[in-house]
Structures are given as C-alpha cells and as structure tokens.
TrEMBL record:
The species this protein was found in: Bradyrhizobium canariense
The keyword DNA-binding belongs to this UniProt entry's keyword annotation: yes
Positions of transmembrane segments: none
Keywords: DNA-binding, Transcription, Transcription regulation
Protein known as: AraC family transcriptional regulator
Start and end residues of each HTH araC/xylS-type domain: 217-316
Amino acid sequence: MYRWCTDEVEPHDRFDFWREVRAQGLFGVTVELEPERRANFFGEFSLRRLGGAGLVELKASHYTVERSVTDIAHAPGDSLCVYQQLGSGAWFGGMRGSDFTIANGSFATSHTDQTYRATPLGTGGFHLRILKIPVSGLSMQDKRMRELAPRTFDDPGLKPLLDACFADLGTVAAGDDGAADAASLVEALAHLALIERGMLRAGSRLGQAALRTARLSQARRLIARHLQDPNLAPAMVADLLGVSVRHLHMLFESAARSFSQTVTDERLNQSRRLMREAPDRLIADIATSCGFESVATYYRVFNAAYGIAPGDFRAQGPEGR
C-alpha cells in the first residue's frame, strides 16, 4: 500500500506538485484551480497493487479535471476503470454521448483512453475509489472495450454486488490466499462492468462466475451486518440476497469456509475485538451481542477454536494476544 498527501509538500507548492507530479505522472490527467484558491489546496491518495490492477482512493479539494487527447497520447492506459463515488458527487462531460452526474454511493465505468472533463458537484471536493484493470489481463478480449466512454451503472441490482466487492478489496488479507481473493474480486468487478455495458451476457460462463464471486462477497457482508441476530441462518441471508438456500450453499462451496463456519468465525472474531476494546464489559454481554445463543455455547465454541477460555484470553492482556 502506497499513501501520499500534500502535507509532505510546502503549502505554496502543494497544488503545483499535485498537478505536475501526481495528476500528470500518476493519473495522466490535467487539473486546474484558480490561483487564489491554491494556497488552501489539499489532496491525498492511496494506491494498492492487486496483481496487474491498481486500486486508488483519492480525496482532494475542489478543482477541475480533464483527460484530453494530449494527455492520452502522453500517458496511455489501455485499462478498464470502475469508479466508486464516495463524496458529494461529480459532473462528467466533454465525451461522446450525454453529460452526466454521479452521486454519492454510485458507480461508473470507462476505458482510460477516452476524453472527459470532471468537477465535483459540491464544495467538499473529490472523494472516490478507482479500480484500474489492464485490458490485456482480462479473460475476455473485445476491441469495443477501448471505446467505452464514462457512464454510470444503470442496473440497480448490480449496486449491492459492486459495494460488496469494493469493500472486500479494501480488507482482503495479504499473502497467497489474499492475492487469490483479490484477483477474483478484480475480475468479477471487470466482468460486472462489461455486463452493465452490454458487452458480456450475465448468463455466460464469465458472467455467471462474476455474479457468484460478487454474491459471495455480499453474503459475507450480510452475515457481518446481522451477527447480533441469534436467528441468523442460511434462509435469512438467501432471502436478503435474492437467491435460494441451495444457491447460497453452492456459493460457499467454492470458499474456504462454509456458511456456518463463516458465521461462527465472524462471531468469535467480533467477541475478541470487544474484549480488547471493552475490557470491563461482561463476557456474557459480549457473547449475547455477538449472537451466541447462550454463554455456555460461547465458552464451548471459543475454547474449541483457541484452546483457551474467554476469561483466560482476556486475562492475558494485549501483549498475550
């Protein structure tokens, strides 16, 4: 993970450095801001490499952005981009087709080497995530991908799947297993974008694989959201996900942990976090808040997983955990 912000540069140089080094060098765009507003400029971003792809999260003060023909010639990308808008929204224009706005929580996609102009809608500036996926690394190859001008996702059914995949990309563990999970999520997001743009059928082999990956991510998010509910069960999650119970179990068959194992592990992890964060909280209260049906069940499951009782785990203190 690489992080950078304008605090590392002298105030009078911050916007010029952002424009000439970060915007041009890293993103291949031209940015502009009125001279009288540059003294208060702030920008920060993080970049995480996910195989050949890159996930960027960017926050910055209000300014204008343009990806021009000259910018493209200077820094061609040949990548598919999926954008997640997190701030107050933005306006896009200057490309083929209609101008559009993208609201907080919405998604858009484009090929990197298409012209556009953009500016935030509100005074808060930019806040978004950008997943940049090289076209050459995709399982599907179609020359039409290079003609994809920026456009929002119109299918409301895809939004929760995109939300879940982006959330998982932000938390996927390091290491070999994490790398495999990240690669699967990146490919799923690319193929969901191509389904949205009409270039890939949802019922195709690649389309079905993308939907399975995304639904598994969403199922895990639903489990985490409803951990406190002692009635958390496959039927409940399947209903929220809009699939059958059989289909839900099939999603978890390809994962390292079954549905029930995932629920138990999440509840145990949550209980350990609560014991660290609230050392005076009653263990019985923690067990209940994590959805265990009884304190006895919690003690039995905790001891089976870690070979130690919850009270002894807490007594070790932070150094022993």
